[in-house]
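Sample 3 of the quickstart, ligand adenosine-5'-diphosphate:
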Amino acid sequence: MTHVTIVASLPAQPPIVARDFIWTDEAACAAMAAELASTLKPALLGGASAYIELHGTLGAGKTTFTRHLLRALGVQGRIKSPSYAVVEPHDVPGMAIHHFDFYRFNDPQEWEDAGFRDLFAAPGLKLAEWPEKAAGLLPRADLQLHIQPSAQDNEQRSVHIEAFSATGLQALQALQPASASEPAGVSAHG
Ligand SMILES: Nc1ncnc2c1ncn2[C@@H]1O[C@H](COP(=O)(O)OP(=O)(O)O)[C@@H](O)[C@H]1O
Ligand SMILES: [Mg+2]
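Result:
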């Protein structure tokens, strides 16, 4: 008997551009978050939309990077992790920000019931941790960060960033290697 596989989601698109960085410590993570914030902020204040996915194991630094990014965008007060609520909204005048953590997301019905479809359709900044847990529901990301802790140094992270849109490309190209050195071997003069 033949089994028919139903393809539930579209095949993954390749990124337009990808770059690799090293965060030697959390300060390098914060520096990159601040740089990204300064590139995105004018467009977001002008009513644009951006969606950033954060991939990586537990403790990689997804929430930490997000907190530094939100601070740099002007979010004040305590920045709660959205783990239990799935989404945490943040307010900066003129800009809607939603920080998602899909770690505990397991009911696709919640996507509709909780209004996530509407949140993703509206302008503003959306950030998502554990997007793989809501695969098939999420839109194409502008940027994906893949954060990998170092086996040797517990403050170091390898960060692979992929851009999937013009917005993502512009933000990725604006990142300076100086804020987080690009490892030797990926540059053209290797
Ligand atoms: N280079 C670094 N970048 C980001 N976080 C770091 C770095 N070095 C150490 N850390 C620490 O690692 C932890 C990351 O935790 P968290 O951001 O909650 O991870 P995740 O959300 O990916 O599960 C934080 O305690 C942070 O201070
Ligand atoms: Mg987290």
